[in-house]
Amino acid sequence: MRILFFAHLKDITRCAEMNLPGGDLDADGLWQKLIEAHPRLDQFRTSVRLAKNSEYVRRDARFTDTDEVALIPPVSGG
Amino acid sequence: MRILFFAHLKDITRCAEMNLPGGDLDADGLWQKLIEAHPRLDQFRTSVRLAKNSEYVRRDARFTDTDEVALIPPVSGG
Amino acid sequence: MKIEIRLTDIPIAEHLSAPASGVGAGAWVEFRGMVRGEENGGVIAALEYEAYSPMAETEIRRIITELTSGQSCLFVRVIHRVGIVPVGEAAICVGIAARHRAEAFGLLTEFMNRLKRDVPIWKCRALTADELAELKTQ
Amino acid sequence: MKIEIRLTDIPIAEHLSAPASGVGAGAWVEFRGMVRGEENGGVIAALEYEAYSPMAETEIRRIITELTSGQSCLFVRVIHRVGIVPVGEAAICVGIAARHRAEAFGLLTEFMNRLKRDVPIWKCRALTADELAELKTQ
Questions:
Q1: Residues of C numbered 57-76 whose beta carbons fall under 8 angstroms of chain B's beta carbons: which are they?
Q2: In this structure, is residue C91 part of a structural domain?
Q3: How confident is the model at residue D40 (pLDDT cuts 50, 70, 90)?
Q4: Which residue segment(s) compose the domain that D104 sits in?
Q5: How close, in Å, is residue C97 to chain B by CA atoms?
Q6: How far apart are CA C56 and CA B70, in angstroms?
Q7: pLDDT for residue C89 is more than 80
Q8: d(Cα D56, Cα D49) in Å, to the nearest integer?
Q9: Residues of chain D contacting C111 with CB distance shorter than 8 Å
Q10: pLDDT over threshold 90, residue D138
Q11: What are the backbone angles phi and psi of residue D43, rounded to the nearest 5°?
Q12: Does B6 map to a domain?
């Protein structure tokens, strides 16, 4: 699946997006893979919301290879 | 003193302003003279606020010959 | 803080400049209250507004000064039409510049409430299309 | 109700027309949030905004639709800058037409609160005057 990073998360991961192969995951499984790829993401886990295909996900969301997943750190628009 | 009428009060009194000789009056005394001049004003007494020289008056205000007094019916600007 | 107040019998310009309030202003809000096509359930073409002019201006200034005391509002502009205002035109325009939006929104809301309670301006007549047309031919 | 949403990297026009929302609109309110000359206590010359574009627009539309359900708002326009926004320029412009002012003010306040909580747009960098000048010469 395609993973997008924004704002300071791009500095942490040093990329704006990455591809994460993984099949069918729940949020915990997804975070585990993300932290494996970028260990420093761990400290942002509690403040980051996940979006799937341009929508915030619910707790029970599942993520598959065709999804576009975005890590949304606290926003500051306006 | 100069008395100003606005909105529907002008229709009641058939004038926009009048001169009311009277010396030194409190609000009750002023209303008494106004109602003598225009008996139909009586029914508006409870809804009309008095202003003296462009300011709403307090309860204990006094009105003298040099004052400009306005009868302010409920406003509806904006 | 700068306060600009005007009562006018000509249409309020569609585009008013925000003031050059410098780098401190983080929020600019402008409100226009327009005459709607109905009044008390009937179709109308215009409203006629009447003001007790010197007192209306004094009272607007007094309300703004009171509401902004201790606040960081930078600029307030109030323009109110008097005379005939056709449907669709603005009867009032209020512009506020402040450091933060919360102050600007709060002031706008509270100012309009106070204006509608205390400022000696009246909708003294609703005009039908025929009455408005007749006035224009006079 | 009509909704107009735009993310743009060019300056927001100073004068945007109110929509031709007909004789039903009694209130038009426009808010501009400007970049201020300081951020976290330091003097700045510009802010850089970043957006997750498709989601930001979807989310703005979702919030407006939710907030206006059962209401009589007639038109909402939201324009948000992305990229570098110099001090004094608007980062956001929100315009609302409604039957009555209370609906317009309420929607504006609540929409801005929700935008600042949920819409994926970030102030990703504050630029000093030197940094801004350097960018311009590139």
A1: 58-59
A2: yes
A3: confident
A4: 2-10+24-137
A5: 20
A6: 12
A7: yes
A8: 12
A9: none
A10: no
A11: -80, 130
A12: yes
In a domain, A64, yes or no: yes
SS (H, E, C) A25-74: EEHHHHHHHHHHHCHHHHHHCCCCEEEECCEECCCCCEECCCCEEEEECC
Domain count within chain C: 1
**Does D120 reach chain A within 8 Å, measured CB to CB?**
yes
Q: Give the closest residue to C85 by CA, choosing from C5, C13, C12.
A: C12
The answer to whether B28 and B61 are in contact (CB under 8 A) is no
Residue C119 has what pLDDT?
98
The domain that holds B9 is classified in CATH as 3.10.20.30
D124 contact residues in A (CB cutoff 8 A): 6-8
For residue range C24-68, list pLDDT tens digits in order: 899 999 999 999 998 888 999 999 999 999 999 999 999 999 999
- Domain total of chain A: 1
β B68-72/B2-5 pair status = parallel
Chain D contact present for C109, CB below 8 A: yes
Antiparallel, parallel or unpaired: β C2-8 and C73-81: parallel
In a domain, D16, yes or no: no
Within-domain flag for C88: yes
Q: Find the domain containing B27 and state its range.
A: 2-72
Two structure tokens written together for C3: 């306060």
Q: What is the ipTM of this complex?
A: 0.93
- Do the chains C and D touch each other, judged by at least 3 C-beta pairs below 8 angstroms? yes
The answer to whether B8 contacts chain C (CB < 8 Å) is: yes
Interface probe for D, chosen from A6, A12, A56, A71 (most Cβ of D below 10 Å), is A6
| CATH number of the structural domain spanning residue C35 | 3.90.1170.40
SS3 of C96, please? strand
Whether residue D26 has pLDDT greater than 70: yes
Whether the Cβ atoms of residue D112 and residue A78 lie closer than 8 Å to each other: yes
Q: Is residue A17 part of a domain?
A: yes
Domain presence at residue A77: no
User: Cβ contact (<8 Å) for D105 and C105?
Assistant: yes
Task: Establish if C113 belongs to a structural domain.
Answer: yes
Nearest to D19 by CA among D11, D8, D30, D9: D30
